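Schema walk-through. Below, the input block comes first and the output block second. Nothing else is stored per chain. Lengths vary across the set, and this one has 704 residues.
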Amino acid sequence: MSLGASKPVVDPVHKSDRGIATDNPIQNPAEDALGRAKPARSFAEQILSLDSAEGIVVGVLGPWGSGKTSFVNLARRHLKDADIPVLEFNPWMFSGAEQLVEAFFVEISAQLKIRSGFAEIGKLLEDYGETFSGLGWLPLVGTWIERGKVATKGLAKLLQRKKEGMGTRRSKVHKALASIEKPIVVVLDDIDRLTTSEIRDVFKLVRLTANFPNIIYLLVFDRLRVEEALGEQGIPGRDYLEKILQIGIDLPAVPTDVLNSQIFKSMDAALAKIENPGQIDQNTWPDVFMEIIRPLIRNMRDVRRYAAAIHGTVRDLGGQVALVDVLALEAIRVFLPDVFRGINGAVGGLTDTSDGYGRHANSPHLKQQIDRLIKAAGEREEVIRSLIQRLFPAGGRHIGGSNYGSDWKRSWLRERRVAHEEVFRLYLERVVGKGLQAFTDAEKAWECMTDRNAFKSYLSSIELERLQDVISSLEAYEDEFRPTHIVPATVVLLNLLPVLPDRQGGMFEFGAQLIVGRVVYRLIRVLNDPQAVEIAVREILPQVPSLSSQLELISDVGYREGAGHKLASETAARELEKEWRARVRAAGADMLANEKSLLRTLLITKRDADPDEPVLVVPDSPRVTVALLRSARSEVQSQAMGSRAVQRYPRLAWDALVELYGDEATLRERIETLKASQPDETNDLLHLAEKYLGGWRPSDFGRD
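--- output ---
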């Protein structure tokens, strides 16, 4: 997979072979991705051409992350090739003037003593450094030195002895350094990472020792940061800096095309070894990159930070979130952490849809969530506006965009876009929610829908409690349903209908019958031809043993009020229904007892019968009576205003039972016969039936 990049000026060595590149400076020219090896050589040659008889201070200047240390590392190689000792001192490891001075002389002298021909100079420099031990100030550095508040005669004598020793020892160091043939380069890096007082201390130290012969200080820092730290009492820091630096090189800006190339190469390397990073949407990627990601990446340090971030996140998500969305959000997480911190509190504002007629379109609290995100972006406001428009279409209405209705959620879910709340929460929380898990299973089921056995096997492997949600999620693929899916998928779904559990859902949850019916209807309507529909239905029915499941299919394609979608011709629908009623009348007690929706099945058979059809006879069987009572049982659900609790009250479709048997006396006889057979696990059902026989009705609930 390639995210697209033009060929870079200098091809880097891909670090993906060893691992993801981290925010570390390069060490050799083979890693130079910015074409700075040649300028680094020129800089090294320039340093060596200078007269260092009285010491030199040079600087490599550039903003944080501009590659200063990498540039120095490239120059260092040329200095070492010229047999120039290059010593390092990192002031970031120390704090305070006294500790800084002591550490400087200890570190530099230690590095010299292990180099052939420099041991004596190292020892002299160490002795010289000891004269500063215990002092809280340095000479000749003006108002920046904090003087002692208490002076005693003993302290004055101590200082006097140290001053006398300092002059003698300094002279020895000066003489020894003047005698060497080649200069010594001392690199002080990371100066701009120090506090203001520490930056000042470093430059005091350099000023103190800068006039030693054959010592070249190479200072590496961000000009603006150091100038700000050195400014004092109306004296610009730049003026002070100019008095110290003999040469300063400002690193050139990285050409836009080169930086873009390195961004793409780093991203490709970061994603190369991930088994399933997800597909890149080439239609949305260019806009997302140019409007969201690219404006936030300023230098190679940013490139490396970003590449390391996307590697971990994309690997964790395993292709379950659209890759373009992940890449955009990771840029916000890395470079705009204040905005990203607020995203968790803006999920509703970003993902809640409008129905297109204004409902919810102006929800104040949702707009406030978006406004807070934009405010947190500060000068990067346009980046966040682009993020909303490109990744969260539903949230775009709060910043002047279009309204998106809930029908869009289906495609967002199928494409794994964070515009869908479930997908977005997976990215934020790394936990697959109930809805997304169901869709993930449906995605796998969809792949085998044309193979009846494979489709059945996969759905059967899913826990029954979750199966209804998985079937419902298949609706997300309705735009991709084809005629080859219809027969195998419909047979499997209708045969699963009797085993789907009756879940205790909320007030507005769909039941299993409606969910299966919705998917079956969307499958059958693909044919868009009444004759083809009839042929498909007649092929399906013999493979579906359940009478109630057969009824679901026939009703979907027929003309029954409130149920039919008129997919078959009226003549064919009537014939299918009449043939089905004949099968119901011919069914034995054992078959009827196993019907989950027996009351509906028998009642429709009785109500819809033509005058010339035989009368329906309900078998006098306790098993059939139990099945009828169970299918007649339901629950009345209520939810008080302002309460999340759903109250459920059991009831029986008593009038429908009486209608089926012809009168309540016959129904009473069947219930008494059932009681006499002492059936197992029917006590609650019989108790409810006896209440009805005693005259109780749901309107009296709670008063008996």
